[in-house]
Every structure is written in C-alpha cells, then in structure tokens.
Design a protein that fits this description.
two-stranded antiparallel sheet, elongated, 19% helix, 155 residues
C-alpha cells in the first residue's frame, strides 16, 4: 500500500513520506477520497464513502483493470493481451465484448452482446462474421499437405 486515507489522516509508507514536500503532502490530503486505498502504482483499489457507497478494483501485472465491483451490485471483468489491449469484457448487466487481435495489437474481429460484428474495422453481419477463420502458415500447410509461400501477411 502506498497510502491510505482514514479518520485520523493519511497513513503513508515512511520512505515515500520522506520524499514529499510539504505542498505535496497537503495536496495528498485534499485529493484522496475518504476511505480509499491505492497500490504502489497509484491505482485505486478500494473506495468507501460516508454514504455507504463502496467500490473495489483489481489490476493485472501491467496495470490494466481486470475486475470492478461496487455496492450497487454492478461488476465487470476484463482480460488483456501483453500490449494492454482488451480481449474480453463482461458486466453484471449481461453486456459483453470479445476481440481477436493480430500480433501488432490491431483488432482483427470484434463482437458484442448488442449484435454488433466487425472484421478489420468494418461492420458485417453475424453470418459473415461466423464464416471467417484465421490460420497460421503452419495450419495452412498442414491442411494442404505441402509447404506454402506467404506473399503478404495480414497486419
């Protein structure tokens, strides 16, 4: 924990406290909502407000939020690739999104629970979407039974 705000003031890592100027300490006290906790990167983990509202979040090793929930019962979950791009997202309301990304992080396909489908950024019908497959060079060679030469790779 980097710092935490509570009734008696701010609870802070002593080594961090030693590096702050008086102005920075004052700003911390004014800008942190009561009842919040943060991780070492400054990402808010929990927030509890005086009216009973609360929220919690968790983050992956790269700082991407992967879970969120609050006192209203709402929650969300997401997964990300190594570049931090979203792969899946779903909520307690039943909404979801799914992405298939290329090696450069570009979105090859996208679909969501509202019935929207896209291939390479272009909207398509569900039928067109379901007819698309992506194969590696090795998979193509295995299907054909012989080596193939890739003239232009998809980005």
């Amino acid at each position: 924990m980097l710092y935490q705000h509570h009734k008696k003031g701010i609870k802070m890592n002593l080594e961090l406290f030693k590096t702050l100027t008086p102005e920075q300490i004052k700003l911390c006290g004014e800008s942190i909502p009561a009842g919040s906790t943060y991780d070492a990167r400054g990402k808010e983990l929990t927030r509890k407000e005086s009216d009973g509202y609360w929220q919690e979040g968790t983050y992956d090793a790269w700082g991407n939020q992967v879970t969120y929930k609050d006192s209203s019962g709402f929650w969300s979950e997401s997964t990300h690739d190594a570049q931090g791009k979203t792969l899946t997202y779903k909520t307690s309301a039943g909404y979801w999104e799914e992405y298939v990304r290329g090696d450069q992080g570009n979105c090859l396909t996208y679909k969501n629970s509202n019935g929207f489908y896209a291939i390479d950024g272009e909207e398509v019908t569900k039928e067109e979407f379901e007819d698309v497959i992506f194969l590696t060079k090795e998979e193509i060679e295995e299907l054909l039974g012989h080596p193939v030469k890739i003239v232009r790779e998809r980005q």
